[in-house]
Amino acid sequence: MKAKYDVGIIGGGIIGQSIAYQLAKENISVVVLEGNKVGAGATSAAAGMLGASSELENNDAFFQFAKESQQQYKTLRHDLTNLSQINIQYVDKGMYKLAFTEQEAYVLKTAMKEHHSLEWHSKQQVLAMEPNLSKEIVGGLYIPEDGHVSPKHVCAAFSKSASLLGAVIVENSPVHSIKKLGEEEYILFTNQSEYSCSHIVIANGVWSDYFFKQLDLEMKVKPVKGECLAVSSENISLEKTIFYDHCYIVPKGDGRLVVGATMVEDDWSTTPTVGGIQTLIEKITPILPAIKSAKLLETWAGLRPQTDDGKPYIGQHPNGENIYFATGHYRNGILLAPKTGTMVRDLILKRKLNEDYVKAFSITRNLAKAAR
Ligand SMILES: Cc1cc2nc3c(=O)[nH]c(=O)nc-3n(C[C@H](O)[C@H](O)[C@H](O)COP(=O)(O)OP(=O)(O)OC[C@H]3O[C@@H](n4cnc5c(N)ncnc54)[C@H](O)[C@@H]3O)c2cc1C
User: Residue ranges of the FAD dependent oxidoreductase domain (predicted)?
Assistant: First the structure.
Protein backbone atom coordinates (compact mmCIF):
# COMPACT_ATOMS: atom_id res chain seq x y z
CA MET A 1 0.00 0.00 0.00
CA LYS A 2 1.21 3.53 -0.80
CA ALA A 3 2.00 5.79 2.17
CA LYS A 4 -0.43 8.78 2.30
CA TYR A 5 0.46 12.32 3.37
CA ASP A 6 -1.18 15.75 3.40
CA VAL A 7 1.96 17.33 1.93
CA GLY A 8 4.87 15.90 -0.05
CA ILE A 9 7.94 18.16 -0.27
CA ILE A 10 10.49 17.57 -3.01
CA GLY A 11 13.95 18.67 -1.80
CA GLY A 12 15.46 18.52 1.67
CA GLY A 13 17.57 21.69 1.62
CA ILE A 14 16.97 24.53 4.07
CA ILE A 15 13.84 25.65 2.20
CA GLY A 16 12.14 22.22 2.13
CA GLN A 17 13.03 21.58 5.76
CA SER A 18 11.79 24.97 6.96
CA ILE A 19 8.43 24.31 5.27
CA ALA A 20 8.29 20.78 6.74
CA TYR A 21 8.93 22.19 10.23
CA GLN A 22 6.16 24.81 9.97
CA LEU A 23 3.63 22.28 8.64
CA ALA A 24 4.54 19.59 11.18
CA LYS A 25 3.98 22.17 13.94
CA GLU A 26 0.39 22.42 12.71
CA ASN A 27 -0.08 18.63 12.86
CA ILE A 28 -0.09 18.33 9.06
CA SER A 29 1.33 15.00 7.88
CA VAL A 30 4.42 15.69 5.78
CA VAL A 31 6.96 13.68 3.85
CA VAL A 32 10.20 15.29 2.61
CA LEU A 33 11.86 13.42 -0.25
CA GLU A 34 15.52 14.34 -0.59
CA GLY A 35 17.53 13.04 -3.54
CA ASN A 36 20.79 13.05 -1.62
CA LYS A 37 21.47 13.83 2.06
CA VAL A 38 19.55 16.54 3.95
CA GLY A 39 21.21 19.90 3.25
CA ALA A 40 23.62 18.47 0.67
CA GLY A 41 22.84 21.11 -2.03
CA ALA A 42 23.44 24.88 -1.96
CA THR A 43 22.57 24.91 1.74
CA SER A 44 25.82 23.27 2.80
CA ALA A 45 27.88 25.65 0.61
CA ALA A 46 26.44 28.85 2.06
CA ALA A 47 28.29 31.23 4.36
CA GLY A 48 25.12 31.74 6.38
CA MET A 49 24.92 35.55 6.37
CA LEU A 50 21.51 36.98 7.24
CA GLY A 51 22.18 39.96 5.01
CA ALA A 52 18.84 41.72 4.59
CA SER A 53 20.27 45.27 4.53
CA SER A 54 23.64 44.33 3.04
CA GLU A 55 22.16 42.32 0.13
CA LEU A 56 18.92 44.11 -0.74
CA GLU A 57 19.11 47.76 -1.67
CA ASN A 58 15.47 48.75 -2.28
CA ASN A 59 12.96 49.24 0.50
CA ASP A 60 10.37 47.05 -1.27
CA ALA A 61 8.27 43.93 -0.55
CA PHE A 62 11.31 41.69 -1.02
CA PHE A 63 13.26 43.68 1.58
CA GLN A 64 10.33 43.60 4.05
CA PHE A 65 10.03 39.83 3.56
CA ALA A 66 13.78 39.44 4.18
CA LYS A 67 13.62 41.58 7.33
CA GLU A 68 10.71 39.51 8.70
CA SER A 69 12.66 36.35 7.98
CA GLN A 70 15.74 37.77 9.71
CA GLN A 71 13.56 38.59 12.74
CA GLN A 72 12.13 35.04 12.81
CA TYR A 73 15.64 33.72 13.50
CA LYS A 74 15.53 35.45 16.90
CA THR A 75 12.81 33.07 18.13
CA LEU A 76 13.80 30.11 15.94
CA ARG A 77 17.27 30.00 17.51
CA HIS A 78 15.62 29.06 20.83
CA ASP A 79 12.71 26.98 19.48
CA LEU A 80 14.91 24.85 17.22
CA THR A 81 17.63 24.37 19.82
CA ASN A 82 15.13 23.42 22.53
CA LEU A 83 13.43 20.86 20.32
CA SER A 84 16.29 19.43 18.28
CA GLN A 85 19.20 20.04 20.67
CA ILE A 86 21.09 21.43 17.63
CA ASN A 87 22.68 24.85 18.09
CA ILE A 88 22.18 26.88 14.89
CA GLN A 89 25.21 29.06 15.80
CA TYR A 90 23.35 32.34 15.51
CA VAL A 91 25.71 35.31 15.83
CA ASP A 92 24.31 38.84 15.94
CA LYS A 93 27.38 41.04 16.03
CA GLY A 94 26.51 42.83 12.78
CA MET A 95 28.41 43.56 9.62
CA TYR A 96 30.70 46.25 8.21
CA LYS A 97 30.51 47.24 4.55
CA LEU A 98 33.85 48.94 3.98
CA ALA A 99 34.83 51.95 1.87
CA PHE A 100 38.37 52.47 0.58
CA THR A 101 37.61 55.71 -1.30
CA GLU A 102 35.48 58.81 -0.63
CA GLN A 103 33.32 57.83 -3.61
CA GLU A 104 32.62 54.39 -2.08
CA ALA A 105 31.87 56.08 1.25
CA TYR A 106 29.38 58.39 -0.46
CA VAL A 107 27.55 55.44 -2.06
CA LEU A 108 27.33 53.61 1.28
CA LYS A 109 26.17 56.72 3.14
CA THR A 110 23.38 57.15 0.57
CA ALA A 111 22.06 53.69 1.55
CA MET A 112 21.57 55.01 5.11
CA LYS A 113 18.78 57.30 3.88
CA GLU A 114 16.65 54.23 3.02
CA HIS A 115 17.46 52.18 6.11
CA HIS A 116 17.41 53.94 9.48
CA SER A 117 19.15 51.26 11.53
CA LEU A 118 22.41 51.71 9.60
CA GLU A 119 25.28 53.83 10.96
CA TRP A 120 28.34 55.37 9.36
CA HIS A 121 31.57 54.66 11.29
CA SER A 122 34.75 56.63 10.65
CA LYS A 123 38.06 54.90 9.93
CA GLN A 124 39.05 55.34 13.60
CA GLN A 125 35.76 53.87 14.84
CA VAL A 126 36.03 50.84 12.53
CA LEU A 127 39.66 50.18 13.43
CA ALA A 128 38.89 50.51 17.14
CA MET A 129 36.39 47.65 16.70
CA GLU A 130 38.36 45.62 14.15
CA PRO A 131 42.08 46.40 14.54
CA ASN A 132 43.22 43.77 12.03
CA LEU A 133 41.52 45.47 9.07
CA SER A 134 43.55 47.44 6.53
CA LYS A 135 44.62 50.93 7.59
CA GLU A 136 43.75 52.08 4.05
CA ILE A 137 39.99 52.14 4.69
CA VAL A 138 38.16 55.47 4.87
CA GLY A 139 35.30 54.11 6.97
CA GLY A 140 32.50 51.56 7.04
CA LEU A 141 28.74 51.24 7.03
CA TYR A 142 27.75 49.41 10.20
CA ILE A 143 24.73 47.12 9.76
CA PRO A 144 23.85 45.95 13.28
CA GLU A 145 21.09 43.50 12.31
CA ASP A 146 22.91 41.46 9.65
CA GLY A 147 24.20 38.52 11.68
CA HIS A 148 24.90 34.96 10.60
CA VAL A 149 24.11 31.31 11.32
CA SER A 150 25.53 27.95 10.38
CA PRO A 151 23.39 26.84 7.39
CA LYS A 152 24.11 23.13 7.87
CA HIS A 153 23.06 23.35 11.51
CA VAL A 154 19.91 25.35 10.73
CA CYS A 155 18.90 22.81 8.08
CA ALA A 156 19.62 19.88 10.38
CA ALA A 157 17.72 21.57 13.22
CA PHE A 158 14.65 22.22 11.01
CA SER A 159 14.82 18.63 9.80
CA LYS A 160 15.20 17.03 13.21
CA SER A 161 12.51 19.27 14.72
CA ALA A 162 10.11 18.48 11.85
CA SER A 163 10.81 14.79 12.31
CA LEU A 164 10.23 14.98 16.10
CA LEU A 165 6.89 16.65 15.33
CA GLY A 166 5.91 13.76 13.05
CA ALA A 167 7.29 14.60 9.59
CA VAL A 168 8.90 11.78 7.62
CA ILE A 169 12.25 12.66 6.04
CA VAL A 170 13.49 10.26 3.35
CA GLU A 171 17.07 10.67 2.08
CA ASN A 172 18.66 9.25 -1.09
CA SER A 173 15.27 9.31 -2.81
CA PRO A 174 15.18 11.59 -5.86
CA VAL A 175 11.63 12.16 -7.12
CA HIS A 176 11.51 11.50 -10.86
CA SER A 177 7.84 12.27 -11.56
CA ILE A 178 4.60 13.71 -10.26
CA LYS A 179 1.32 12.20 -11.40
CA LYS A 180 -2.14 13.61 -10.70
CA LEU A 181 -4.63 10.87 -9.75
CA GLY A 182 -7.70 12.78 -8.61
CA GLU A 183 -9.03 16.07 -7.26
CA GLU A 184 -6.64 16.14 -4.29
CA GLU A 185 -4.34 13.24 -4.95
CA TYR A 186 -0.89 13.30 -6.46
CA ILE A 187 1.66 10.51 -6.55
CA LEU A 188 5.37 11.23 -6.15
CA PHE A 189 7.49 8.53 -7.73
CA THR A 190 11.01 7.63 -6.67
CA ASN A 191 12.93 4.58 -7.87
CA GLN A 192 12.20 2.81 -4.60
CA SER A 193 8.65 3.88 -3.74
CA GLU A 194 5.46 5.86 -4.38
CA TYR A 195 4.02 8.51 -2.06
CA SER A 196 0.40 9.65 -2.22
CA CYS A 197 0.01 13.33 -1.24
CA SER A 198 -2.84 15.86 -1.25
CA HIS A 199 -0.43 18.79 -1.77
CA ILE A 200 3.00 18.95 -3.38
CA VAL A 201 5.76 21.49 -2.69
CA ILE A 202 8.61 21.81 -5.16
CA ALA A 203 11.65 22.98 -3.17
CA ASN A 204 14.54 21.39 -4.98
CA GLY A 205 16.59 24.56 -5.54
CA VAL A 206 18.63 24.85 -8.72
CA TRP A 207 17.17 21.55 -10.01
CA SER A 208 13.57 22.91 -10.08
CA ASP A 209 13.58 23.35 -13.88
CA TYR A 210 13.12 19.60 -14.11
CA PHE A 211 9.63 19.92 -12.56
CA PHE A 212 8.83 23.22 -14.30
CA LYS A 213 9.29 21.37 -17.59
CA GLN A 214 7.37 18.29 -16.41
CA LEU A 215 4.44 20.56 -15.43
CA ASP A 216 4.62 22.55 -18.72
CA LEU A 217 5.56 25.77 -16.93
CA GLU A 218 7.98 28.20 -18.54
CA MET A 219 9.78 29.50 -15.45
CA LYS A 220 13.53 29.05 -15.23
CA VAL A 221 16.04 28.61 -12.42
CA LYS A 222 19.72 28.82 -13.42
CA PRO A 223 22.88 27.96 -11.48
CA VAL A 224 25.28 30.65 -10.31
CA LYS A 225 28.27 28.80 -8.92
CA GLY A 226 29.89 30.21 -5.80
CA GLU A 227 33.31 29.22 -4.47
CA CYS A 228 34.43 29.75 -0.87
CA LEU A 229 37.35 29.02 1.40
CA ALA A 230 37.81 28.72 5.15
CA VAL A 231 40.92 29.66 7.13
CA SER A 232 41.92 29.84 10.77
CA SER A 233 44.46 32.00 12.54
CA GLU A 234 45.24 32.70 16.16
CA ASN A 235 46.67 36.08 15.12
CA ILE A 236 43.48 37.49 13.63
CA SER A 237 40.68 38.80 15.80
CA LEU A 238 37.51 39.63 13.89
CA GLU A 239 34.09 40.23 15.50
CA LYS A 240 31.88 41.34 12.67
CA THR A 241 31.27 40.12 9.14
CA ILE A 242 33.28 42.21 6.67
CA PHE A 243 31.94 42.97 3.19
CA TYR A 244 33.76 44.70 0.35
CA ASP A 245 33.48 44.52 -3.44
CA HIS A 246 31.16 41.45 -3.50
CA CYS A 247 33.51 39.59 -1.17
CA TYR A 248 33.01 38.79 2.49
CA ILE A 249 34.74 37.37 5.54
CA VAL A 250 32.45 35.76 8.09
CA PRO A 251 34.03 35.05 11.52
CA LYS A 252 32.36 31.83 12.63
CA GLY A 253 31.85 30.91 16.29
CA ASP A 254 34.24 27.96 15.96
CA GLY A 255 37.17 30.25 15.06
CA ARG A 256 37.05 29.69 11.29
CA LEU A 257 36.92 32.65 8.91
CA VAL A 258 34.74 31.87 5.89
CA VAL A 259 35.69 33.84 2.78
CA GLY A 260 33.33 34.03 -0.20
CA ALA A 261 32.20 33.95 -2.80
CA THR A 262 32.71 33.91 -6.55
CA MET A 263 29.81 34.29 -9.00
CA VAL A 264 30.06 32.06 -12.06
CA GLU A 265 26.92 31.94 -14.20
CA ASP A 266 25.60 28.79 -15.87
CA ASP A 267 28.28 26.52 -14.43
CA TRP A 268 26.92 23.25 -12.99
CA SER A 269 30.23 22.03 -11.54
CA THR A 270 30.61 21.97 -7.76
CA THR A 271 34.40 21.73 -7.66
CA PRO A 272 36.24 24.95 -6.78
CA THR A 273 38.83 26.12 -9.33
CA VAL A 274 42.32 27.45 -8.63
CA GLY A 275 41.35 30.66 -10.47
CA GLY A 276 38.23 31.14 -8.35
CA ILE A 277 40.04 30.67 -5.05
CA GLN A 278 42.91 32.88 -6.26
CA THR A 279 40.44 35.70 -7.03
CA LEU A 280 39.04 35.50 -3.51
CA ILE A 281 42.49 35.57 -1.91
CA GLU A 282 43.54 38.54 -4.07
CA LYS A 283 40.41 40.47 -3.12
CA ILE A 284 40.50 39.68 0.56
CA THR A 285 44.22 40.18 1.33
CA PRO A 286 44.20 44.00 0.99
CA ILE A 287 41.18 44.11 3.35
CA LEU A 288 42.62 41.82 6.03
CA PRO A 289 46.41 41.69 5.39
CA ALA A 290 47.06 39.21 8.25
CA ILE A 291 45.07 36.57 6.38
CA LYS A 292 48.24 35.79 4.34
CA SER A 293 49.65 33.80 7.27
CA ALA A 294 46.35 32.08 8.18
CA LYS A 295 46.00 28.30 7.78
CA LEU A 296 43.96 27.27 4.75
CA LEU A 297 41.42 24.72 6.04
CA GLU A 298 39.19 23.92 3.07
CA THR A 299 37.67 25.14 -0.18
CA TRP A 300 34.25 24.30 -1.63
CA ALA A 301 31.63 25.37 -4.15
CA GLY A 302 27.86 25.30 -4.49
CA LEU A 303 25.10 26.33 -6.89
CA ARG A 304 22.86 29.29 -6.13
CA PRO A 305 19.40 28.91 -7.70
CA GLN A 306 18.85 32.14 -9.67
CA THR A 307 15.58 33.31 -11.26
CA ASP A 308 15.23 35.92 -14.03
CA ASP A 309 14.78 38.81 -11.57
CA GLY A 310 16.74 37.47 -8.60
CA LYS A 311 13.63 36.98 -6.42
CA PRO A 312 12.41 33.55 -5.34
CA TYR A 313 9.33 31.80 -6.68
CA ILE A 314 6.99 31.23 -3.74
CA GLY A 315 3.44 30.50 -4.77
CA GLN A 316 0.80 28.16 -6.06
CA HIS A 317 0.58 26.58 -9.51
CA PRO A 318 -1.14 29.10 -11.84
CA ASN A 319 -4.06 26.73 -12.57
CA GLY A 320 -4.91 26.42 -8.87
CA GLU A 321 -3.51 22.87 -8.65
CA ASN A 322 -2.42 21.88 -5.14
CA ILE A 323 1.17 22.21 -6.29
CA TYR A 324 3.29 24.91 -4.64
CA PHE A 325 6.74 26.27 -5.44
CA ALA A 326 9.43 27.50 -3.06
CA THR A 327 12.55 27.82 -5.10
CA GLY A 328 15.01 30.26 -6.70
CA HIS A 329 16.29 31.78 -3.45
CA TYR A 330 19.56 32.66 -5.20
CA ARG A 331 22.07 34.42 -2.85
CA ASN A 332 19.75 34.59 0.16
CA GLY A 333 18.08 31.25 0.82
CA ILE A 334 19.47 30.98 4.34
CA LEU A 335 18.16 34.44 5.22
CA LEU A 336 14.79 33.78 3.54
CA ALA A 337 14.16 30.21 4.76
CA PRO A 338 12.13 31.01 7.92
CA LYS A 339 9.66 33.34 6.21
CA THR A 340 9.40 31.04 3.17
CA GLY A 341 8.41 28.25 5.59
CA THR A 342 5.60 30.28 7.14
CA MET A 343 4.41 31.67 3.79
CA VAL A 344 4.11 28.21 2.21
CA ARG A 345 2.40 26.92 5.36
CA ASP A 346 -0.15 29.76 5.08
CA LEU A 347 -0.66 29.17 1.34
CA ILE A 348 -1.43 25.49 1.95
CA LEU A 349 -3.65 26.17 4.96
CA LYS A 350 -5.44 28.93 2.99
CA ARG A 351 -4.64 31.54 5.62
CA LYS A 352 -4.57 35.27 4.97
CA LEU A 353 -1.43 36.27 3.11
CA ASN A 354 0.40 39.57 2.57
CA GLU A 355 -0.69 40.45 -0.97
CA ASP A 356 2.54 42.35 -1.65
CA TYR A 357 4.48 39.13 -1.04
CA VAL A 358 2.06 37.06 -3.14
CA LYS A 359 2.64 39.45 -6.07
CA ALA A 360 6.39 39.85 -5.58
CA PHE A 361 7.06 36.09 -5.57
CA SER A 362 4.27 34.88 -7.89
CA ILE A 363 5.59 32.18 -10.17
CA THR A 364 4.11 33.83 -13.27
CA ARG A 365 5.42 37.36 -12.66
CA ASN A 366 8.32 37.11 -15.12
CA LEU A 367 6.09 35.63 -17.82
CA ALA A 368 3.63 38.50 -17.37
CA LYS A 369 6.51 41.00 -17.81
CA ALA A 370 7.79 39.23 -20.91
CA ALA A 371 4.32 39.32 -22.53
CA ARG A 372 3.94 43.10 -22.04
C1 LIG B 1 28.84 29.85 -2.10
C2 LIG B 1 27.46 30.21 -1.61
C3 LIG B 1 27.30 31.09 -0.56
C4 LIG B 1 26.04 31.42 -0.10
N5 LIG B 1 25.93 32.25 0.97
C6 LIG B 1 24.71 32.57 1.45
C7 LIG B 1 24.57 33.38 2.60
O8 LIG B 1 25.56 33.81 3.20
N9 LIG B 1 23.32 33.70 3.02
C10 LIG B 1 22.19 33.25 2.40
O11 LIG B 1 21.09 33.59 2.82
N12 LIG B 1 22.29 32.45 1.31
C13 LIG B 1 23.51 32.09 0.83
N14 LIG B 1 23.63 31.29 -0.27
C15 LIG B 1 22.40 30.87 -0.98
C16 LIG B 1 21.75 29.68 -0.30
O17 LIG B 1 22.73 28.69 -0.08
C18 LIG B 1 20.63 29.12 -1.18
O19 LIG B 1 19.75 30.16 -1.60
C20 LIG B 1 19.81 28.09 -0.39
O21 LIG B 1 20.65 27.11 0.16
C22 LIG B 1 18.77 27.43 -1.27
O23 LIG B 1 18.17 26.42 -0.50
P24 LIG B 1 17.27 25.31 -1.19
O25 LIG B 1 16.75 24.43 -0.12
O26 LIG B 1 16.30 25.96 -2.12
O27 LIG B 1 18.29 24.54 -2.17
P28 LIG B 1 19.32 23.38 -1.85
O29 LIG B 1 20.01 23.57 -0.58
O30 LIG B 1 20.16 23.23 -3.08
O31 LIG B 1 18.39 22.13 -1.66
C32 LIG B 1 17.70 21.53 -2.72
C33 LIG B 1 17.69 20.04 -2.43
O34 LIG B 1 16.88 19.37 -3.39
C35 LIG B 1 17.45 18.10 -3.63
N36 LIG B 1 16.91 17.61 -4.90
C37 LIG B 1 17.19 18.02 -6.17
N38 LIG B 1 16.43 17.37 -7.05
C39 LIG B 1 15.64 16.51 -6.35
C40 LIG B 1 14.65 15.56 -6.72
N41 LIG B 1 14.30 15.36 -7.99
N42 LIG B 1 14.04 14.85 -5.73
C43 LIG B 1 14.38 15.05 -4.42
N44 LIG B 1 15.32 15.94 -4.02
C45 LIG B 1 15.92 16.67 -4.98
C46 LIG B 1 18.94 18.34 -3.64
O47 LIG B 1 19.66 17.16 -3.36
C48 LIG B 1 19.09 19.40 -2.54
O49 LIG B 1 19.42 18.84 -1.28
C50 LIG B 1 24.88 30.89 -0.74
C51 LIG B 1 25.04 29.99 -1.78
C52 LIG B 1 26.31 29.63 -2.21
C53 LIG B 1 26.44 28.63 -3.33
Answer: 6-346
Which band of pLDDT confidence, cut at 50, 70 and 90, is reported for residue 1? low
- Cα–Cα distance for residue pair 203/127, rounded to 1 Å: 42
pLDDT of residue 353: 97
CA of 224 to the centre of ligand 1 (A): 11
Binding pocket residue ranges, ligand 1, CB within 6 Å: 10-16, 33-36, 40-43, 45-49, 174-175, 203-207, 226, 228, 260-261, 302-305, 327, 329-335
203 CA: nearest ligand 1 atom: 26
Cβ-based burial of 358 (10 A; exposed 0-12, middle 13-18, buried ≥19): middle
Is 15:338 a contact under the CB 8 Å cutoff? no
pLDDT value at position 370? 59
DSSP annotation of 156 reads H
Residue type (1 letter), 152? K
Q: pLDDT digit string (tens) for 60-82?
A: 999 999 999 999 999 999 999 99
Distance 117 CA to ligand 1 centre (A): 29
User: In angstroms, how far is CA 165 from the centroid of its own chain?
Assistant: 23
> Going by CA atoms, what residue is nearest to atom 50 of ligand 1?
46
- Identify which of 329, 340, 343, 344 to mutate to test ligand 1's pocket (most ligand atoms within 8 A of the CB): 329
Q: Quick one: average pLDDT of 128-155?
A: 97
